[in-house]
Each structure stands twice: as C-alpha cells, then as structure tokens.
Amino acid sequence: MSDAGYLHGSCLCGGVTYRAALPVSHASHCYCRMCQKQHGAAAGSYANVASAGLVIEQGADLIAEYASSDHGRRDFCRGCGSTLFWRSTQSPDRIAITLGTMEPEYAGQVTREWFVENKPAWLPQA
User: Fold this and answer.
1) CA-to-CA distance for 67 and 126, rounded, in angstroms?
2) Class of 3-118 per CATH?
3) Boundaries of each CENP-V/GFA domain copy (predicted)?
4) Calculated CA dihedral for residues 25, 18, 77, 82, nearest 10 degrees
5) Which of 13, 25, 69, 78 fits a 20 to 30 Å CA distance from 39?
C-alpha cells in the first residue's frame, strides 16, 4: 500500500507517531461527558479505522491507557497528555483515532455525531 493509503499523526510533543491504514469507516464528533472532559473541548473528534492497520512508528512506551468505562479504553501520551485513540473492548477490530493529531489534517467528512443531547449551548449555532 502506498503512503497515500494511510493517515499519519503524532502527539503534541512528537514523542508518539503513528500511521493507520485507510479506509476510514466514518468520522464523528462525540459529545459525551467523558470525551468532553478528556479533550477539554465540546467534543472528541475521531476517525474510525481497522485496528489491525494501526502502526505505532515511534513512542509506543509513551502510550498510557485509561479505562474510562467497562468497555471504553482511552490512550494518551504520557509525556504531553495528548489524547490519541479510543477503542471499545466490545469491538476490538476497530479503533478511533483523534482527528486533531493527524498530519496533514483530516480531509474527510464528519458524518456522525454521538450524544448530541450533551452538545454545549456555548457552541455557535449553525
């Protein structure tokens, strides 16, 4: 597969770099309170890909995991705290990669929104 067949990204400090094989099944914004707290933002934004296609190119030892629920696992960089991945133990063949860590920026469309009832009132109205 050519380099164009991958998403690439890194954490804020550059200690963790990754590539993930395309295709993206969907991209989403999740407004659940856990994503809001972890990201410090209105939503967590993710691209969902096959977990078998994710390669940690550098810094695997810097990745820490937080079990945020009985099935949700959130991975982040120990060095800078950047949120990197979300995965469910109920769907081990998939992984969600944070859109904000991608280089170049994600060019696809966000097609799903989760937990919209938690969407903050302070967001601009469409």
Assistant:
1) 34
2) mainly beta
3) 7-115
4) -60
5) 25
